[in-house]
Specification:
The protein is 61% helix and 8% strand. By secondary structure, the chain is mostly helical. The protein folds into 2 domains: 163 residues, Ribonuclease III domain (Ribonuclease iii, N-terminal Endonuclease Domain, Chain A), CATH 1.10.1520.10; 70 residues, Double Stranded RNA Binding Domain. A hairpin with a 2-residue loop joins strand 2 and strand 3. It is globular, with a radius of gyration of 21 Å. The protein starts with 6 loop residues before the first helix and ends with a helix.
């Protein structure tokens, strides 16, 4: 398909950019003047390769990955200057993760703006991935407007502030396997053993995989997930919460 941009598409993109509520005079000017070259920049960020093999979001997504990490580092430096480098890395990993990008994309409604070809339109398995990728490309496109992370931080800092507080209050919910392993090492117990059983063949099934956790030979908890990783993470979180409730953690 040819990725032409008509008046209807321009209006859709302008309305979408307005909805982001980025508090920047120069960003507002792009919207008000409908700067065509920059609108094209955003149109590309919102185009999947199944729709246009040449002008799609892949390059902007690659670029946006670096921009996102730099903007997140800038946020952490200003908000949590007392943090060690290790702590900063852990926090940044959470606020730039694929899961976080998909969550942000859903929050801003990016999916309804993404141009996709017929094969991708009804592909439920790739939906979250495409949302996250397009959101990352959008971040790259915002940077491209001014060669600056200022607008990215103006947009994301408030979101990061809220998400960072959630993570810092209960880090075990987000990195439960690491926290559980560290607890076992501190207690002198054997490391957790994760045993996975595939319960169904359906992609996206939230209970496709079951995971049992054994410590010192004893089964301590179970969890489910649509992937091995998710089932293990959920089982570890369940076990940590179980130990917290009985005062062992």
């Amino acid at each position: 398909m040819t990725n032409t941009i008509n008046e209807k598409r321009i209006n859709q993109i302008v309305a979408f950019l307005n909805s982001l509520k980025i508090r920047s005079k120069r960003f507002s000017e792009i919207i008000e003047t409908q700067n065509f070259s920059l609108i094209q920049n955003f149109n590309q960020a919102l185009t999947h390769s199944s729709y246009d093999k040449i002008r799609n979001y892949e390059i902007l997504e690659f670029f946006g990955d670096a921009v996102l990490r730099l903007a997140a580092s800038n946020f952490i430096e200003k908000s949590y200057p007392q943090m060690s480098v290790g702590e900063r890395s852990e926090l940044r990993a959470q606020i730039v993760s694929d899961e976080w990008l998909t969550k942000l994309g859903r929050k801003i409604g990016v999916e309804k703006l993404i141009l996709k070809g017929p094969k991708s339109l009804n592909d439920e398995n790739s939906k979250n991935t495409i949302i996250g990728e397009a959101t990352e490309a959008l971040i790259g496109a915002i940077y491209n407007c001014f060669n600056s992370i200022e607008e990215v931080n103006l947009w994301l800092n408030d979101i990061w502030e809220e998400d960072s507080e959630i993570f810092l209050k209960a880090p075990y919910k987000f990195k439960s396997k690491t926290v559980l392993q560290e607890w076992c090492q501190n207690k002198g117990s054997s490391l957790p053993v994760y045993k996975i059983i595939e319960l169904s063949k359906k992609n996206g099934d939230p209970k496709r995989f079951s995971c049992d956790i054994f410590i010192d030979g004893l089964k301590e908890s179970s969890g489910y997930g649509k992937s091995h990783k998710q089932a293990e993470t959920n089982a570890a979180r369940v076990l940590i919460e179980k130990f917290m409730n009985i005062g062992k953690f």
